[in-house]
Structure formats: structure tokens, C-alpha cells
Hints:
Protein name: Major facilitator superfamily (MFS) profile domain-containing protein
Largest sheet: none
Structural class: mainly alpha
Membrane topology: Multi-pass membrane protein
Organism: Halopseudomonas phragmitis
Pfam family, one: MFS_1
GO molecular function: transmembrane transporter activity
Amino acid sequence: MRPGFFFQESRVSTHASATSIAALVIGSFAVVMSATTINVAIAPMMAEFAISHRLAQSFSSVFLGLTVVCAPLASWLADRFGAWRVFARLLLLYLLVSLLAGLSDSFAAMLTARAVQGLCAGIMQPLSLFLVLESANPARQGRTLSMFSLGVVMAPALGPTLAGFVVEHANWRHTFWLGVPPAMVALGLIVWRRPQERAVVTTPSRLDFAGLGFLAMLVAMVFLWPLLLEHSSGLAMLMALIWLCLVRVFWRQMQVREEPLIEPALLSHPAYFSGLLVTLAYGVGMYGSIFLIPLLLQNGLGESAVTTGNLLLLGGVALAVSIPLAGRLVDRFSSHLVVSIGLSCFAVSSLLLAWPGGLGSIAAGIVISRFALGMIIPGLYTSMARAVPDSLLRRGTAVTTMTRQAGGALGITLIGALLASLTQGVVAPLAQTPDQPYRVLFALISLLFLASLFAARRMNLRASD
């Protein structure tokens, strides 16, 4: 790869590597935060454009869906054009589109900008992950990944709080601009240090366009399923069965193609496969709790937005404490042990949120859940990186990111459907008080995380090249 404006081929120093990692963390923070900032702006958006809640909700579904579809593109783009070059160009695109969206008066233009943000986030998240893994000292891999986790976990958790402040004191359109300052800082660090591109030792493969289209269809069906469920539960059940059959067909195609979108060999490594199962549960828990906690407090218990924000802020503090602690524990002890501790803590926190107690138990549940999320990611990514050979690292990180986002998409879709059934009296015995539907869902999330502990036990196996 020839040196360009952002890059150079000379060997970088330790300080430059630290600066490069900081650019990746800050850049990831910028794009990942966009996943949840728009949720706070949905109500004023509906009022201004006179649109339905379902149409306004497409701002979230389009973004999350494109992060799933575009994640597998990261390794192909990196091998073909250079990982740092792609990361910097996409970060610049994200910055410009966000600025323009905040100035727009057109719903269609904003939705298009939201789609571009999702595309950028979908590719940049796995790019930043494997660039961090390639830059990190193996002896400090856990601590380095804990820095990366600040962008992945803190951003969606802090997004609604920052967006709420902007909506309250400025204009809801300015929520598009929240990611602009960190994106500018990350771009400045990249221009300053010009990180080194890793030489590509193999010819980049052809892009599997058919597989990409098939994946996009599967993701679209996930978000269309709730619409069908509103009209006919029988047709929704049929669609779910068809979707499962199509997933099997998709995987069979990946197994027979010479250059598949998703490398089937990844799943031949038991520790990596187990890590994917934990990652799927993690996506459900992270995005599901971000969705459910404000609803439990405000709709279920009648608490104010201020109280909700303060409790979520406590969770953010716990998250900030747990992430560096988890990185140190991963470097010192077994990474899968740290993951198991985090999964257990999240299961306990969900039980606290499911328990019919007062604000004290809910506050404890929120704090423990954020602490648990911070504990899981460094150990999870470290275990999965060690589980595959170096030749599959880039493709493995892309599939890992895709699985986490897919867990979020599936989780929010299923939680929304179950919540509608519980609140509308379809399951009447369970919906006796306003807070009961939300507590039932937290109990189900707790069971999911307890089950994922069995998968975590197999994550201590290393790859053999």
C-alpha cells in the first residue's frame, strides 16, 4: 500500500501506536453513539413532520439493520484498500453527513443520512476492533481492548443522556451533531500520526454480492416481522418459520461458495463459536436493557425523566469503573473467567430489575448491569481473537461485530413484540400492574444470560494455525 495523505509506511513508535489506538476508540465512540441518540428525538420529530411512530422508528431500524449488513464488508474493504484508509474515509463521510443532516428540513434527507451513518458504523466497528488487536501488545491485550470497549459500550449508554440534554435545551435536529466533535478529534489524530498500514500478503478476494443481498433480505425480514404481527399472528408465525429456513439456506450457500461473505471455517473453532453465542446474548442484553430501563421507570413506575437520567448516569459511572478493571483482570487471569463473572452479574442485575421492588432495587440493578457489560467485552473479544488463527482474525472480528448488532436487532424486535402482547392484555395474568410487563422481560433476559454461561465455559480454547 502506497503512503497517502493519512498514512505512512515507516515503523511507528509506541507513542504513535497509543495515539492510533486513541483515534480508533474516539472514532468508534462517535459512530456507535449515533445508534441511540436519535431515540430521544423521535417524539419531537413525529410532531414536526406529522408522521407515525412506526415511520419515525425507522430511524433506529435502518441504522441498526445496516450495521448488521455492512459489518462483513469490513475485512474485504481493508484487504483491498487498506484498513486505516477505509476507516479514515468513512469517518470523514460520517462527519459530513451528520453535519448536513442537522441542517436539513427534509424527512427523506434525514432518513438517507441515517442510513449512511449506519453504513459507516457497520464497517468502522469491526475495522477499529481488528486494528486495535493488530496494534496491541499481546501482554496488554486485555487493557487495550478495555479502552476500545469505552467506545463500544459507553457510547450507546451515554447517547440518550446527551441527546436528552440537546433536545431539552436546543433543537432535536442537533442530535445528529453529537458525534461530530469526537469524529473531528479522531480525524485530527489520524492526520497527525499517519498510522502505518499492514501489508496485505494475499490477493483480496472477490466480494460475495449474492451473499450480501441475501443477508440484507434476512435483516429486512426481522424489522418487517413486527408490522406483520400487528395484522396477523398466524402470518407472523409463518414468516418466522420461513426466516429460519432461509437462514439455513444462507449458511449452506456460505459453505459451498469459494469466496463466501462469511467464512464457515470460523465456526470450526469451538471457542470462537461459543464466543459468538455469548456475543449474541450480549447484544440482546445491552440493547434490550437500554430500551427497557427508561420504559420501566417512566411508563411502569411513573418516574420523571430527571430521575431516569440520574439513575442511568449512575450506571454510566459503574461502566466507566468496570471497563479498565476488566482489562487488568483479563491480562492477569483467564479471559473466559472474567466473561463468566460479567454474565453472572448481568443475570443478577436483570433479576433485580424483574423483582417487584422500589427505586433502590432498580438502582442496584442498573449499576450492576452496567458494571457487568463493562466486564464482559474485554474478555469476550480477547478470547475470540485468541480462538482463531491470525489469517482469519479480520474476518472473525467482522463476524463478531455483526453478531453483536444482530443480537441487538433480534432482541429489540422480540422484546417489542412481547411487550405489546403483555401490555395489550394478550397475556392477561402477567399484566396486573403497569410495571409487570417490563419485569417479566427482564426475567427472560436473566434466563438468557444464565444459559450463556454454559457457552462461556468453552471460550478458553486457543486456535491452532
